Structures are given as structure tokens and as C-alpha cells.
Amino acid sequence: MTDAAPQDDLAARILAGDRRALARAVTLVESTRSDHRAQATTLIETLRGHGRQALRIGLSGTPGVGKSTFIEAFGMALVEAGLKVAVLAVDPSSSRSGGSILGDKTRMERLSRERAAFIRPSPSASHLGGVARRTREAVTLCEAAGFDVVLIETVGVGQSETMVAEMCDLFVLLLAPAGGDELQGVKRGIMEIADLVLVNKADGDLKPAATRTVADYAGALRLLRKRPQDPEGFPKAMPVSAVTGDGLEGAWTEVQALARWRKDHGWWDRRRAEQAAHWFEEEVRAGLLSRLRDDPQVREAMAVTAEAVAEGRMTPDSAAADILQRLRS
Ligand code: GDP
Predict the structure, then answer these.
(1) Mutate which of 60, 69, 206, 214 to test ligand 1's pocket (most atoms within 8 Å of Cβ)?
(2) Does ligand 1 lie within 6 Å of residue 140's CB atom?
(3) What average pLDDT does range 297-315 have in this prediction?
(4) What's the domain range around 159?
């Protein structure tokens, strides 16, 4: 048997939609072992260009807003409509915070039992760069396995949303009804990437507050953003209830309408092309840095230079130029 054979087999099984093969492949792309990395790269290359595209949806919200309840209900609705749904979680902070694990199957019990669903929790991976690559590759694997929708779930903290936005076709922000009339501590950055703001828990006693919150955000979104890739009426704010299911069908209709519009107007392909270019640059940047760090001499020089910079004996710019000069020579 040649070295390539097991991956070819794995690739064939993924293309046939085998969930266990998909899970194995995701484990492979998560591995940091260099032989696994080489196998993962070969696998991804083999699967590239299979012509399948999923709708990639980013979903963000602070803990407790109802992400898992929403994904369970929304995912089940999609599965019942005959679609295959994958859920990938991105939580670069999970290892540090020790908080709830995103994409934990016990948080989405019904969905995880569905044959047409695939749920993958956030790996305990360390840095954002590693998580980004793993997630991009996992998306490719899910697309190859014939998934129609890939939900990429992340928490409302740090840089993870920006990263997720760079790998999905559209972005959904989940919010809870606000008590007062102030906009919740939502950072401007995330408002700029959200295509759909869903105010969850619009049920029972919380309904009036949800309605108010929707109005507040609809106003804020109108003021904040007008981009050519947003059709009339987008970004949009809507109430939903993950518990009663109210508004979920409407949210799916809006997602599809936006995706359709962007496809028809060339923005879909353009965005994917820009994302590919972005990740190419990121990989080059990361590769250069690791090459610097992997070389013991350069590492030593980096440490010495960093000290010189810290003590004000060198400027950051000239120190960086110094180190980069070493790469050239
Ligand atoms: P996550 O941390 O964002 O994944 O949030 P969870 O899905 O675990 O939900 C946090 C809490 O909010 C749980 O107690 C849920 O039952 C509750 N919850 C989630 N969605 C809704 C909803 O639509 N309405 C109401 N009333 N409660 C909800």
C-alpha cells in the first residue's frame, strides 16, 4: 500500500458523505503533528475543486444569549427541510477561560442525533491562527461531504468574530432583549460585520423588551452602515425565539434572500475570492514568523533584539528590519 492510499480512501468516504470519515478528517486537520499536517494538506488538496459549496453562516453571541438553543432549533428546522447542517465552533479562549465549550453536543442533543447533522466542538487549540486554519479546513471538508449549510459558532469576545467573518458568506449576531434603552455593550466592529441581528428570547415576559431592542438595533444599523454588498433593508434586525421557534423560519428566509442577492450581484464570488487572498497572506505571515522562531540562532537574535527594543536602545522598526534582513541572508 502506498502512503497516499489511506487519504484517498478517506477522501472518497468524505465525498460519499460519511460522517465518521469527516470526523476523522477534522481530527487530522486539528493535529499539530507535522506528519498529520502533511496528510491534512494532501487531503484538502484532493478534495478541493469538488465543486460543492455550502452556505457558510457565522453566528456570534455572548454566553447565555441562547446560541446552542438557537442552533439546535434552527438546525433542526433546516434538517427537517431536507438540508444537511454542519456546526463548527470557534472559541480561541476556551482553553484559558475554562468556560462552556462551544459546539458541545450535549448543548444540542436533538441535532447531534440527526444523520444529516455534524457538530464539532471547538478544539482546545491555542492561538487564533491555528484555530483559523483548522476551521477553514474543516469548512472545506464539510463542503466536500455535501453539507448544505455550515454554521460557524463563536463567542462575542475578542478577535474571533472578525476571524469568523473572514471565512463565512454572511454573519448573524444573536442578542438578548435589553433591559434599558441602551444598546448592549456590543462593539462597533461586530455591528459592522453583522448582516442579520437576531434578538432572541422574544417570548413571554421578554417579548416587549425584545421588540424594543429590535427597534433600537434597526435604527443603529441604518445609521451605521450602507455598503454596496448590502441589498435594500440589510443589515436587518429581527426578533426570534429559539424556545418557541417563532421567527426562525423568517430568519432563514432572510438568510436565503441575502445569499441569493449577493450571488446574483457577484458579491458572493467576490467575497470568497477576497477571503482566499486574505488567508493566503495570513498563512505567509504565519509561515515567516514560524520560520524565524524555528531557527535557534534567529530566535536568540529575536530575544536580544526584543530586549534592546524594550530598553529603548532600538526602535521597533529598525529592529524588525534587522531581523528580516537575516531571513534574506
Ligand atoms: P449560549 O450560552 O449562548 O449557548 O446559551 P444557551 O442556549 O445555553 O441558553 C442560555 C439560557 O437561555 C438557557 O437557560 C436557555 O434555556 C435560555 N434560552 C435560550 N433561548 C431562549 C429563548 O428563545 N427564550 C427564552 N425565554 N429563553 C431562552
Answers:
(1) 69
(2) no
(3) 92
(4) 52-264
